[in-house]
Design a protein that fits this description.
Formate dehydrogenase/DMSO reductase fold; single chain; two-stranded antiparallel ribbon; mainly alpha
């Protein structure tokens, strides 16, 4: 049933645009998540040879992965300006810290190799930038899920609205999750001692991520009645029950992949855990784009603006996806010690 006052293009265009933005954010989290995880794991691999191999494993992919973050942010600005104008002021500091972290990480990719043997500062920038970006994204996520105070269509909270215990929990969970993706990526893409050490790191990270998922899954409905109503009312409980069951199955698959020699199974299972967690968060908030009070239809731009954006994205997304598939296929296979891409 359509929301009151919205029909035709004013109803389905916001749905289509929201779906595209959700897809872009999901692809960013998955694709940029593993190379952020590489940076988070940098302190656990102090040897220069190991770090060189880690950087080489993501060198062909990292900059293209961030395309999806730009698309998600720009899409929100164009298609849902009201939501953008509320979410940004509510999270100015973590957004700025995230962007600075991504800048330092990107610069370190380019400068680390040419700065040798005086590259230690770029190792620090790569690790610190990755951790800062991951923490900031978790704080933004926690701030949105926790609800944003709005008055007369504008953000009505303070500059530290995002700094809550729940937000910090989300930040820690995201850092652990990215680290797991990075470790599973190294298991799949590298050889030798680095692969084995990454495997040993991935197992406790998997357990820590599951613990975080359980804590967030319990904390969210207890703290937010709207989420409890969504998940535990009938018949929603029946429809949504496969989500936690599938999460357990994917965690078991990831563990089995790490314990066996099926090196790709662990990584794709970890990606599946992220996808399910993301779907669960979306299900907890839909149809609110700015929880708990502004729906995606209320935040939407004029239908002409959304139609213009949607046509452009319908052209560009297949191009970007095609390029992404081409790059990942071209550079498939493991990276040997000493190997580098120039």
């Amino acid at each position: 049933m359509s929301p009151a006052g919205f029909s035709g293009a004013a109803y389905w265009l916001p749905l289509l645009c929201a779906g595209v933005i959700a897809l872009a954010v999901a692809l960013y989290v998955i694709l940029d998540g593993f190379d952020l995880g590489i940076g988070i794991l940098f302190p656990f691999f102090p040897e220069e040879s190991a770090r060189d191999q880690m950087m080489a494993s993501v060198a062909p992919f990292w900059d293209g992965n961030e395309t999806w973050l730009v698309m998600g942010g720009a899409g929100l600005f164009v298609a849902f300006p009201t939501a953008y104008a509320i979410i940004m002021p509510a999270h100015y500091l973590p957004v700025i810290l995230m962007l600075l972290g991504l800048v330092f990480r990107g610069v370190s990719f380019e400068f680390r190799g040419v700065a040798k043997p005086y590259h230690r500062r770029w190792d620090i920038a790569f690790a610190a930038g990755s951790v800062t970006a991951a923490l900031s994204q978790g704080l933004i996520l926690g701030g949105i899920l926790n609800g944003i105070p709005v008055r007369d269509g504008e953000f009505a909270g303070g500059p530290w609205h995002w700094l809550t215990a729940f937000g910090l929990m989300c930040a820690v969970a995201l850092v652990i999750g990215y680290a797991l993706l990075g470790a599973c990526w190294l298991v799949m893409k590298t050889r030798g001692d680095l692969e084995e050490r990454a495997r040993r790191l991935a197992l406790p990270l998997l357990g820590a991520l599951l613990a975080c998922i359980v804590v967030v899954s319990v904390w969210t409905p207890l703290a937010l009645p709207r989420v409890a109503q969504r998940w535990f009312s009938w018949p929603n409980l029946l429809y949504l029950s496969p989500v936690p069951l599938a999460t357990g199955a994917l965690a078991l698959s990831c563990w089995q992949g790490l314990r066996s020699r099926r090196v790709s199974r662990a990584f794709y299972s970890a990606v599946g855990l992220f996808v399910l967690a993301y779907v669960g968060l979306l299900l907890s908030s839909v149809p609110y784009l700015v929880p708990p009070g502004i729906t995606l239809w209320q935040a939407a731009a004029a239908p002409r603006s959304q139609a213009f954006m949607f046509v452009g994205l319908a052209i560009m997304i297949p191009v970007i996806l095609g390029y992404t598939v081409f790059v990942y296929r071209t550079f498939r296979g493991k990276v040997d010690p000493g190997q580098a891409y120039h």
